[in-house]
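Run log // design_07
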């Protein structure tokens, strides 16, 4: 049962990976966590681990399902203190014959799905005392990588969308944070066929995100070592291109997170 001073947090993409770890850690810290994803079974297994978790399955690319989800969330709580929009997917383009439809599929989840979530949650955030909107993007936007056209573009779109949203919501005192993780050990990244520098344990990454969000940063990128490495692409773009081209030829291509 919800207590009067219990923080209410909505986490998307909570069935696995970073979203799952964030949801469980927040629930263990006493928050009432509304966990959503497409996988109902995985959500139910998550909810069974802590009584503070409420599982609500939803495909965020489906506008009708999102509208229904909004009503379900409102039935649990009339407000959301913090929304952590983490749901996402990754597909790579393999040249010379890429599946161009992958660009639309990835954008549909990562960008338009997140926009659907923002539309859904804004009325509930407005009802909170100190609302906080959090979007999980990626450090992949800091540099170009082979095969990452779809994934990188979707996350870059989120970056700009949130930067503008922050301006438009400032008068309503709704804080907007963008989190840019590096490589985190999740079921999604385990599909990668390339070296992932500074790969982080998912529990450690979730802990760092939760700890940093307490200060409501505009942007948080981690780990710093990866940020510094990716910064080379701006300092020496020609050298970066040569390095990435060489890595592609050797089948070692490090894009998404």
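design_07 sequence
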């Amino acid at each position: 049962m919800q207590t009067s001073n219990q923080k209410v947090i909505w986490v998307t993409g909570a069935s696995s990976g970073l979203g799952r770890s964030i949801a469980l850690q927040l629930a263990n810290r006493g928050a009432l966590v509304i966990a959503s994803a497409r996988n109902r079974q995985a959500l139910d297994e998550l909810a069974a681990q802590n009584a503070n978790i409420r599982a609500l399955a939803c495909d965020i690319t489906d506008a009708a399902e999102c509208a229904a989800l909004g009503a379900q969330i409102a039935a649990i709580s009339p407000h959301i203190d913090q929304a952590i929009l983490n749901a996402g997917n990754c597909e790579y383009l393999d040249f010379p014959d890429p599946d161009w439809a992958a660009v639309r599929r990835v954008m549909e989840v990562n960008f338009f799905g997140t926009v659907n979530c923002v539309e859904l949650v804004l009325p509930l955030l407005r009802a909170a005392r100190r609302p906080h909107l959090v979007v999980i993007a990626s450090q992949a936007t800091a540099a170009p990588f082979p095969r990452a056209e779809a994934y990188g573009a979707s996350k870059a779109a989120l970056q700009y969308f949130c930067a503008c949203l922050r301006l438009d919501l400032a008068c309503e005192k709704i804080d907007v944070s963008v989190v840019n993780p590096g490589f985190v050990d999740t079921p999604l990244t385990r599909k990668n066929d390339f070296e992932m520098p500074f790969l982080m344990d998912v529990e450690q990454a979730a802990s760092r995100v939760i700890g940093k969000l307490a200060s409501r940063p505009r942007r948080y990128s981690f780990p710093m070592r990866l940020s510094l490495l990716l910064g080379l692409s701006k300092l020496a773009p020609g050298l970066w291109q040569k390095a990435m081209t060489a890595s592609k030829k050797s089948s070692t291509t490090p894009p998404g997170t």
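The helical segments are 17-28, 40-47, 63-76, 101-126, 149-169, 202-213, 224-235, 237-249.
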